[in-house]
Amino acid sequence: MKLLAFIPIRLTLLLIVGILIGHYFSFDPIHLLFITLFLFVLLTTIFIFEKNTKSILFGAIVTLSFIFLGIYSYTAAQPINNRNHYSKNTQTKDALWSLKIKEILKPNQYSNRYFASVESIDDKKFSGKLLITIPKDSTHQTLNVDDELLTYSDIQSISPPLNPHQFNYKKYLENLGVYHNMKINPGTFVKIKNSQVTLIGIAAKARNHIIKKLNHKNFGTDELSVIQALLLGQRSEISEETYTNYQKAGAVHILAVSGLHIGILLLLIQFLLSPLQYFPKGRTITLILSVILLWAFAFIAGLSASIIRATTMFTFVAYALYLNRPSNTFNILALSIFFILLFINPNLLFQVGFQMSYAAVFAILWIFPLLKEIWFPKNKAVRYFWQLFCVSVAAQLGVLPISLYYFHQFPGLFFISNLVIVPALGVILGMGILVIFLTLLNWLPYPLVWIYNEIIGLMNSLIAWVAKQENFIFSAISFDFIQLLLSILVLVIGVELFTKFSYKRIIFFLMSILCFQGWTIYQDFEANKKSEILVLHQTRKTIIINRNGINLSIITNKNNTPDYLISDYKTAERIDNIKYDSLNNSYSFHEKSLLIIDSMGIYPNLTSPKILLTQSPRINLDRLIDSLMPNEIIADGSNYKSYINRWKATCIKNKIPFHYTGEKGYYNFK
Are residues 465 and 323 in the same domain? Predict the structure, then answer.
């Protein structure tokens, strides 16, 4: 592969390998620092004295040096490895916490949520980041970025998923450097006056000021929410229906200020500044102004992590365009990844947005030039839409494996929404920036508000129409990590084959397809053999699933089982058939008895059963244990917490294993 001939790409891949090793294995940061420094000193010594960069020894030392650099950068970047991290403080009970709000998250139905940095505990300096939840209260005002507060609240561990194949919010937060949650009730904290202001805080205030100004204009509710998302990175006001439509239409990426927006903005800026290139040093001035304007937009959009990442990436792309050498584009793109992962945050490698942004940009740079050469229409308008279609296909090919792995769906009509919206996005962004500018000056005329509102409304209507074409939305696609790797391999070898046909490349391409198909068939075969019985956790409900091959029986006391509980399991486990059964008092699983005791508290006399307690039965558990001598007691989410605590204490006293699904997660009858 020719791309591997570029040194920055090779070094970036080695750094990524090191970060992956650091992610999956634990290392001591001090030892890693000494090893990394030793390797780079050794590398420098060999380079100075041997001056032979093609020797095997030099290549081996380079490889080890950059792998260990990746391991060290990841390990050192983990907040919990910092000696001043709040987790190192043993006296957290009833301690006085000083916190600073860093980011406002989308509120849920019951509470407002924030990321906050730990400033001190009992006046001792500490570091780290917490997830803060404050229950909604009519007298409580929301906090702003840079607000500082004092509280005696305690931290709690973030719960892992309680049911199989659910989204692991705990792991997601750990990749953001957040390990604990703090619930702060209204009235139990004090806001500090005259808190220290940061650049991100100033950006957040500027964004809030713009949003308040826009709220006083005659925009529609849905249109205004989309405008805020497109231009200001504020998605919290988007309705669930609108967001779902964009998701089904394969255009959800438009609602997050990301690489697409910054890339289009860069092209728009370069087009507007193109007359400067006729002046002396015009290209240099264009580069400087482009970078300044990109970061100015990032500032207006709130300087969130995703916006900073995208702007950093396209700062490097702007430099690549300035050099005007296509072969350097991949080098500079690799250098931007290297810079971001090494100096900004190696944890970004494990974030879906980062992976999809770079996959899309890389695919466009690599695949688009090949696709557009297939056909060269003479008509300029036809050529423009053909090239736009090629860009859309290239980007979708790049993100397809990642999208299938994380979201298990593929919008078949993605090219329709992209063919219309992506060309219009430049106009929408340009007009939007003009609208914001005129709003701040109080010069925004009503005709411009009406025109812009109609454009956004038309875009929403198109997306809603595409989303209604259910037959073209392929969802619930089973796609595991091995399939992700193999599909990337098929894509890479396929593009290489398309570049140049040869017997060897055809063989490799066919072998990669056979490997992908072979693994898929093997997984289907294993799914047919697998059987398991699980008690799931669900508040106020009892749900038992009995899986036999690709058939799933859902045993429940209520018919309205949440879709997400079953759909996630169905997709991951390759289930084809589902049926519902009502809950009985007893079952026999694998020659073992399961006795279910509900609110009636009536039970038959069985010998040494497993007991499932549901719907808070009023029973004397000591007497039941003496009578039935159960080998294990299970309690699901349909029981009162006070009952759970009492049963748990009784089981500990009687030395009977006790499993509460709200604490230990789903129960597996192995």
Answer: yes
Token pair belonging to 68: 């260990």
Number of domains in the chain: 5
pLDDT digits (tens, 9 = 90+) for 385-400: 788 788 878 888 888 8
Task: Tell me if 356 sits within 8 A of 399, measured CB to CB.
Answer: yes
What would the pLDDT profile of 322-374 be if each residue is shown by its tens digit?
877 655 677 777 878 888 877 778 988 888 888 888 888 888 888 888 888 88
Tokens describing residue 96? 């006085």
- Cβ–Cβ contacts within 10 Å for residue 40, how many? 16
**Do 336 and 225 belong to one domain?**
yes
Residue ranges of alpha helices (H) inside 28-168 are 29-50, 56-77
Q: How far is it, in rounded angstroms, from Cα 121 to Cα 179? A: 17
Judge residue 484's burial from the number of C-beta atoms within 10 Å of its C-beta, 0-12 exposed, 13-18 middle, 19 or more buried: middle
Closest-CA residue to 157 (of 176, 134, 183, 135): 183
Phi/psi region, residue 409 (left: phi>0; alpha: psi -120 to 50; beta: rest), is beta
* Closest to 202 measured CA to CA, from 145, 147, 245, 128: 145
Domain closes at, from 459, 474, 489: 474
Amino acid in the structure at residue 242: T
Contact, 619 vs 600, CB < 8 A? no
- Distance (Å, whole) CA 130 – CA 124: 17
Beta bridge partners of 116: 101, 130
Q: Could you tell me which of 241, 235, 293 has the C-alpha nearest to residue 269?
A: 293
Rounded distance, CA 58 to CA 68, Å? 15
